[in-house]
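WARN no homologs supplied; continuing
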Amino acid sequence: MILLKSKPEIEKMRASGRVVARALRCMSEAIVPGKTTPAELDAVAGRIVAEAGGTPSFLNYRGFPANTCISVNEGVVHGIPNQVPLQEGDIVSLDMGVLLDGWHADGAWTYPVGSISPEAQKLLNVTRESLYQGIAKARVGNRIGDIGSTVQRYVEMNGFSVVRDLVGHGIGRKLHEEPDFVPNFGKPNTLEMIRDGMTICIEPMVNQGTFKVKTLDDKWTLVTADGKLSAHFEHTIAITRDGVDILTRED
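OK structure emitted
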């Protein structure tokens, strides 16, 4: 059952979302090419969440061992933060959730490490824009399929592919709620009707090459099947009759 949220409940989620956005920003500002490790960034996120009085949503979720998922270059999602320094020219996807006062928010952003190639920058630009194109379709009276079809069309028009094995989801008192299938692909006018009070995560995962992925031996990290780059952008949003409200930002 899809749980529709009241305005006060959405405000609770906004408070969680601000912490997510602040932590992502602070992690990105801490990156020093050739020096900073994902594990150090994970510690930054943990500190920000603790200072806000929250709990990292991902820590120990289904056994995940860190505050954040940090995926580098061909890493798609669910990367376990390690001690390998990020290098000039890498791209790094930072993904995290926060539980504050009983409510979750979840967000992700892919950042350049120093100067990156024009091809990598295009991937970041297209993935970020596809997120906002999808958000624009999250209107009362539309359907969930309208979001995914719009994301897919924009991504493929720019020569990239959308990951099929992972999708967005509903969110609220639980990290994953119904609708549990908010894909970044598909056909318009399909899946659930979008209603006033829905809160969902839209999160395009976009690859340079094939949309296929594989899981590493750690049983968590997903990487592109062909070793090419991947980017990931995500916002938690609330949908009301007044429009779309992005909850995972600091302002």
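Residues 7-29 form the longest helix (23 residues).
OK
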